[in-house]
Amino acid sequence: MADQIDDPDELPSTAGEFADDYPEVWEAYSDLGEATSEAGPIDDETKRLVKLALSIGAQSEGAVHSHVRRGLDEDVDPEALKQVAALSIPTLGFPQAMAAISWIEDLTDEDEGEA
């Protein structure tokens, strides 16, 4: 799973500027992401779903969008991405899960319209 983005031009503007301004820090961050991804037996799709769940729990719309976008690029079933939000209901609460579903659908519904 190539989870870290190596090319700063592919990053959202603030992160891209940070990577340009602090390349050594960005490289260390990227290396940490790669090391944690390779630290155990979890398969790539499960890693993506876990990272999506962590993003939902952190209430980070940007991170949810990032992991959904990457998941779709990796052919993760859009319904699996939405199920992660549904699974968050008992732990995070209904309102947070509904926010997460809306963030996921920002991208999954966009893809369905292209089909």
Automatic annotation (TrEMBL):
Region (Disordered): 1-20
InterPro entries in UniProt: AhpD-like, CMD-like
Gene Ontology terms, MF aspect: peroxiredoxin activity
Carboxymuconolactone decarboxylase-like domain span: 23-106
Compositionally biased tracts (Acidic residues): 1-10
Pfam families, alphabetized: CMD
UniProt-listed PANTHER family: ALKYL HYDROPEROXIDE REDUCTASE AHPD, BLR3452 PROTEIN
Protein name per Swiss-Prot or TrEMBL: Uncharacterized protein, gamma-carboxymuconolactone decarboxylase subunit like protein
